[in-house]
Each structure stands twice: as C-alpha cells, then as structure tokens.
Design a protein that fits this description.
This protein is an alpha/beta fold. Helices cover 36% and strands 17% of the residues. The longest helix has 15 residues, at 28-42.
C-alpha cells in the first residue's frame, strides 16, 4: 500500500486551543483521524507526525525519502524563517505539498513569504483542516 507522510510543524500540537479564531477548533488528533479516513477512501495509508524542533522535521523529511510516496507538510512558523527546511525539501526525491490552515497572505506581512513554496510541488492554504485533505488528494490523484 502506498504510504504518505503528514508532517505537522511547530506549535501545531496546540491546535484546538491555540487561537481557534485563526486555526479552527479541531485538534491535531482530529485532523489526523480525518486524514486517516480520507486515506482509506483513497486506498492509501498516512503516517502522521508532529515535531516542534526544526532538526526533527528535517530528520522526518530525510526519512520519508526512503518510504513515502509524498509528504503533506505544514511547517507552521518555520515557513517564514527556515532555509534549513527549504533545503531538506529540495534534497528529497518525493513530492511535498505545503499546507496551512489559515491564509498567510491575509495575515501579518512577515507571513507573506514562504521559503518552502518554491521547492514544493504546490501550496494549499486557507481552507482549515481541508488544506491537508486537498494536499493529500493532490499527491494521490495528481500527476
């Protein structure tokens, strides 16, 4: 069975309680459950992981290169600061879709730039937890 990594970045373990007016009321566990159900419908498997540390995220991306057909990645705030994560995404041979719950373009100006977007297959943002679902569908069904 084809496997996909869903990788949650820093502070996403606080979903459900962290600024629900921006990030919604679903917890990370609920998002993961929704994605596991969708994966079942698509005939694939998702492995969901979350790390607050930049190095742990890099290691997860490197590891995914050995088993994943693709990665759905919400880098959180590292989106706007991390050349290291950008380089990790560029270094692996599997496609990565960058996702965000909120629309960074509609938020503070410092959130308008993504270091990762240029090296990702695509970016989906602003649709709440459905951004993850759309990213997974794009990887599974896309070309």
């Amino acid at each position: 069975m084809n496997q996909y990594l869903v990788l949650h970045g820093a502070n996403l373990n606080l979903l459900g309680t962290r600024e629900p007016e921006i990030y919604g009321s679903l917890t990370m566990a609920q998002i993961n459950q929704n994605l596991e159900a969708l994966a079942g419908q698509l005939g694939v498997q998702v492995i969901c992981k979350q790390f607050n540390g930049e190095g742990e995220l890099v290691n997860a991306l490197h590891d995914a290169a050995g088993w994943a057909k693709g990665v759905v990645f919400n880098p959180g705030g590292y989106t706007h600061t991390s050349v290291v994560l950008r380089d990790a995404v560029a270094a692996i041979p599997v496609p990565v879709v960058e996702v965000h719950l909120s629309n960074p373009q509609a938020r503070e100006e410092f959130r308008h730039h993504s270091y990762l977007s240029p090296v990702c297959k695509g970016s989906i943002y602003g649709f709440g937890w459905m951004s993850y679902a759309l990213g997974l569908r794009a990887l599974v069904e896309g070309k």
